[in-house]
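Dear colleagues,

As part of the handover before I leave the project, I'm documenting each prediction I ran so the next person doesn't have to rerun anything. This entry is a single chain, and its sequence is reproduced below.
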Amino acid sequence: MKLSDVVLQRLLTLVESRDVLPGQKLPAERRLAEQLGVSRASLREAIQKLVSQGVLESRHGDGTYVKEQRHVSSFLLPDTFEPLAALLSSDPEYRYDVLEARMALESATAWHAALRATTADKDRIRHCFDVMLMHQKSGNRELSSRADAQFHLAIAQASHNVVLLRVMHGLFELVLTSVMHNRNTMFMLATPEAIDDLTVQHASLLEAIVQGDAAGARDAVQEHLAFVRDTVRRYDDDEARQQRYRSLPDAIRSPVIAR
């Protein structure tokens, strides 16, 4: 992948992670280059590509703006995942399809991230992990869930694969919804062991990527997502069983023994 394409992806990720809205101005070029850890020349080339693609707008003497007509998150995949989000809302069982899709996607992103992650990529993944732990310890479900999703997206970014990254970004809200539900389930289960297992799994994934262990990273993310799937499924099965029991007539739920 060309350097300008790598910078382009870093720029898109920065814009999306900070929720820069259409019509809003990007930071000054020098500051932006420092934040991304790239040269100003590479940054200019990436900006020009996004301008030509209709994602950004360059205003002479004023700076660079996210274009009004089109939100950056729609880049390459406009309106692709809205129907899936609606399905997930109407039938929570579809979250298992999301987990299955994540298993396929993140096995690839983790593998490539372990082989291609730069020092800046690794620092970004580590930062997301630390933020996730901080919110997890404070018991803030929403912020820990968002940090969890950002952790996985940072790994996708480190894969330096433009297609995988864009698919993961297109799935962001869907993944976030899934992560939040799964994490809420974990907290509702109130098993410290399950939360500890999640932390260990994320730490193992982080370590494998930092060490450049592609097979280890792939195995770590598969183990993590399989654990989440099995834990949430167990909770759903228990809840369904309780609902069936509560729907029984009183005579069946509480039979009276004849004398």
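The two ends are 82 Å apart (CA to CA). Residues 214-246 form the longest helix (33 residues).

All the best with the project,
I.
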